[in-house]
Specification:
226 residues; alpha/beta; Rossmann fold; Arc Repressor Mutant, subunit A; five-stranded parallel beta sheet; 10 helices; disordered N terminus
Length: 226
């Protein structure tokens, strides 16, 4: 898990279709302008003030990234992610919220969110987080990453790591490195494996743990080895 990386300006970068679910009209307009302004990177799909208003269109439009507020009228943003993520396996969900509680972060990630950003984040960091989530990353605002690290440091150390049933030693080793913040390319380099081999191992891990993303797999690992 990492903070958003600088946005690429490569002309070959794929244009991402981005949707927004946010009940605050000022912030909704801000996000629309942010996405529209970066027309070389993003295509604006639409913005809705509630989960109920957005759900049907999101399922038909299938955006690359959906930016979601947690506190929505009616159905919550977390519930929207939980309902839509299994039906939109190629869509990344980025939470944008005021809440900096680690428990809410974990709950959102378990629900299927790929990233968690605070509304106080700079516009450039929000845009970079959208791009990073679409590429399989797990963008976190710096304050959120710091809080998560602190919450782990406050936990008593465990003398032994618990094996996750069903995973091979190599799969567990790869998952452990990911949990320590490494990306697949770094894991491949450290273990002297090809990047494609690591990806194959990850596909097997996803199937065995019944998850669909690196973030969810890491959460499962941390639940076994807090």
């Amino acid at each position: 898990m990492a903070t958003p990386a600088p946005e690429s300006s490569s002309p070959s970068t794929r244009v991402l279709r981005v949707a927004v679910v946010e009940d605050d009209p000022t912030l909704r307009l801000f996000l629309e302008k942010l996405v529209t302004k970066k027309g070389n990177f993003f295509e604006f799909v639409g913005a809705w003030e509630s989960a109920e208003a957005a759900a049907v269109t999101l399922l038909s439009e299938r955006p690359d990234v959906i930016v979601v507020d947690l506190e929505l009228p009616g159905v919550s943003g977390m519930e929207l992610i939980k309902q839509l993520s299994p039906r939109l396996p190629n869509t990344a969900f980025v939470v944008l919220t005021i809440h900096d509680d680690p428990q809410k972060v974990f709950a959102a990630l378990r629900s299927g969110a790929n990233g968690y950003l605070l509304k106080s984040a700079r516009p450039a960091d929000i845009a970079a987080g959208i791009r990073q989530a679409s590429e399989g990353g797990a963008p976190l605002s710096q304050d959120i990453a710091r809080l998560l690290i602190q919450s782990f440091q406050e936990e008593p150390a465990k003398p032994e790591k618990k094996e996750i049933p069903g995973l091979t030693p190599r799969e567990t080793q790869i998952l452990e490195l990911l949990a320590h913040g490494k990306v697949p390319k770094e894991v491949a380099y450290e273990l002297h494996l090809s990047y494609e081999t690591v990806r194959d191992y990850l596909k097997s891990v996803y199937q065995k743990l019944h998850v669909r993303s690196r973030t969810e797999a890491v959460i499962k690992y941390l639940e076994h080895n807090p």
